[in-house]
């Protein structure tokens, strides 16, 4: 497989690659062999011109009139995203959302592994819940280093998010997924993504009420 210069891929394009991979994997499971940019645009709700431009950064991925080979695209995007490389993750905050994420344990990609969970509640620290031993945040740096954790997923409410994220950052982890909608302060070398469930639900409801003929793509 050709190795790509990932630094030359525009950030906007890079953000869409997981969306393409997710939907292509679904198509492959359904037995779809090839697809054209227009068809992929209908599924992902990304304009076909944008798709073709995104793909052009990665070389010659398709043929005019034929479209794109689904299996080949999956290999290309998997290689670029390192989706076949094992990534160990930690959950910070083991409330209802944390438990739901741990129970799901990213079944769609067996290389994404939740290795440890943390909380500040003394009633659950030291307990094994849903198959996970709950560590104290005081042990965060030691445990995550021992388990080679590279990604932290924070489900801590906004009022306590900054303190939790500070602990994560001080441990040396630079990739953080934050489910608290309020922004927190982090150094410039930290890659932080926010997921605001309220905003996502409002967006979903808006499209359901007003754009029933063009539904949103499934992106997660």
Automatic annotation (TrEMBL):
Pfam families for the chain: CoA_binding, Put_DNA-bind_N
Tell me the organism: Tetragenococcus solitarius
Record-annotated residues binding NAD(+)?
Answer: 93-98
What HAMAP family would the database entry show?
A: Rex
Report the DNA-binding ranges. 19-58
Family annotation (PANTHER family): REDOX-SENSING TRANSCRIPTIONAL REPRESSOR REX, REDOX-SENSING TRANSCRIPTIONAL REPRESSOR REX 1
Identify the keywords attached in UniProt to this record, alphabetized.
Answer: Cytoplasm, DNA-binding, NAD, Repressor, Transcription, Transcription regulation
Q: Which InterPro entries match?
A: CoA-bd, NAD(P)-bd_dom_sf, Rex_bacilli-type, Rex_DNA-bd_C_dom, Tscrpt_rep_Rex, WH-like_DNA-bd_sf, WH_DNA-bd_sf
User: Which NCBIfam families does this UniProt record tie to the protein?
Assistant: PRK05472.1-3 (NF003989), PRK05472.1-5 (NF003991), PRK05472.2-3 (NF003994), PRK05472.2-4 (NF003995), PRK05472.2-5 (NF003996)
Asked if Lyase is a keyword of the record, the answer is: no
Q: What is this protein called?
A: Redox-sensing transcriptional repressor Rex
Whom does it interact with, and what assembly results? Homodimer.
Q: What does this protein do?
A: Modulates transcription in response to changes in cellular NADH/NAD(+) redox state.
């Amino acid at each position: 497989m050709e190795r790509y210069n990932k630094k030359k891929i525009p950030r906007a394009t890079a953000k869409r690659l997981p969306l393409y991979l997710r939907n292509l994997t679904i198509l492959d499971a359904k037995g779809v062999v090839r697809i054209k940019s227009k068809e992929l645009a209908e599924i992902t709700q990304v304009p076909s011109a944008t798709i073709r431009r995104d793909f052009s950064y990665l070389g010659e991925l398709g043929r005019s009139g034929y479209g794109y080979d689904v299996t080949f695209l999956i290999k290309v995007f998997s290689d670029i995203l390192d989706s076949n490389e094992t990534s160990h993750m930690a959950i910070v905050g083991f409330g209802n959302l944390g438990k739901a994420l741990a129970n799901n344990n990213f079944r769609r990609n067996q290389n994404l592994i939740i290795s440890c969970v943390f909380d500040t509640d003394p009633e659950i620290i030291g307990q094994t819940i849903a198959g996970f031993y709950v560590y104290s945040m005081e042990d965060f740096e030691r445990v995550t280093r021992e388990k080679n954790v590279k990604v932290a997923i924070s489900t801590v409410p906004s009022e306590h998010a900054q303190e939790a994220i500070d602990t994560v950052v001080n441990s040396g982890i630079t990739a953080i997924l934050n489910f608290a909608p309020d922004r927190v302060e982090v150094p410039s070398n930290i890659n932080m993504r926010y997921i605001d469930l309220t905003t996502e639900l409002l967006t979903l409801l808006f499209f359901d009420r007003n754009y029933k003929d063009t539904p949103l793509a499934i992106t997660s």
